Amino acid sequence: MEYIVLAGVIVLFIVLIMGNEYLSSRSCQKAYLAQIYQSYGKASERSYTAEELKHISMYYVKHPSEGQIDDITWNDLNMDTVYQRMNASCSAAGDEYLYYRLRTPVYEEAELERTEAQIRFFMEHEEERHAVQRMFAGLGRMGKYSIYEYLDNLDTLGERRNGKYVISNVLLILSVAAMFVSLPAGLVALLVVLCHNIIGYFKEYKEIEPYITSFRYITRLLDSAERLGQKKITGIEREQERLKECHRQMKGFIRNAYLIVFTDKGNGNPLGVVLDYLRMIFYLDLIQFNNALRAVRGHMPEIDEMITLTGQIETAVVIGSYRKSLDGQWCVPSIDFRQDAERRLLLEEAYHPLLTDPVKNSITAKKGVLLTGSNASGKSTFLRAVAVNALFAQTIHTCLAKCYEAPVFRIYSSMALKDDLVSGQSYYMVEIRSIKRILDQVKEAEQKHCHVLCFVDEVLRGTNTVERIAASTQIMRMLAADHAVCFAATHDVELTKLLEQEYDNYHFEERIEEDDIFFPYKLIPGPATTRNAIALLKMLGYDSNIIREAETMAERFLADGSWQNGGI
Hints:
This protein has about 575 residues and is α/β, with parallel strands linked by helices.
């Protein structure tokens, strides 16, 4: 009787601990979901390290396609920061697919229309949005690495077989049976087998432990696919059907992976401790891992498709949240997908997504646009604002403007270049290679009858004035081809005259008042007529002789086009 009471007390104790953990887990989950719901429509506050962004980019790396945004353009436009401002995903699939989406412009009208329908549905239907947000919260993230990095390394595990584990388990059973024949001999045999199994377990578990993380994620992915497939959500029926089919094909993986993915080591739960020892002694999760490994290797396409589908759906939710965070200062772009579409870009009241109090500008470009103006007047920011909006139009179908109209563009830039110390390339070499790649794309666009939109900040700044102006003129004329629209900024006022047939001139100006300088950041038609470099030297207290002589030299050059030594 005492044993029954003791057993009952132990069972009750275990039940109470498990119940407390369950209630605590539910409370944390509710708080997390409440935070997700409340953050919808607000700027993301999540921060990323460079290493995290590298792992987030893996889906993009594994899915290359023509016309994607290259590294130079991505970095020129500060798109890592733009991505962080926008990303409100709850899952690794959402993180990686949004990054891929921003680097992969859409060139088919039907695809953008479908994306728009999904975005609007989740913006307008809170209950369904909350349902998928709960699913993505349950899916969660991988941790340090991308699922694709784990999958890439599966081959390093080689062929894993269960025969030796079966033999060890048979020996364990035989040692227990031997105790009924000779207790001392049976105990010695049992102890030897137990030590062998536990030592062997830890040795092999260390090798497979990183992959168990990925298997747990795949299992959560399958669970999310099943739950999402059961809900009736307008606009994602096709995705739901494919998710259900992937889940059906991978039932074998779920069965084989059950033991290794639904147990957590070291959680302090008494039942978990018991299960830990059973798994170690009988190699249970190693056996299940080998079975699951074979299932994963046979279903790589299904895993990739599930990540793609769930990523697409969550990205639609995230884009809706981003739109709401813009307080109505956005528009759905009007894109002409015809191959013979007019070369014309219209932007009304456009602004850059990273500015907290932006000055909005409008422009209609039917040919190239050449920007001049003083330092810090807003030229580079305007170039980036136009480029990011063009990219947004064909990726998230959302522009930070009152109106956006344009054909489909291939987008390239050459703006924020640096010396390449590793390869020993000078700034000039880096620059001309960067511009060459744009020229190649413009030539290719003429052959394929598509349009290129390019952005160049300070053409050939890495060389001397005479050769810079001569070469820049010819390069800019090439970039003004029939199938290209080029936005360029320059300090070389000579180019405004040399290129006035191919480019429309615009400028930004500054105002100097009471020994201070102000920038309105408003785009003005025509070339710049003011300068501020010498004025800034004066404001910072440079010697008056330097200021006077410099101003005299500059005025004489503008008058007769030649330099004279000194101010005499």
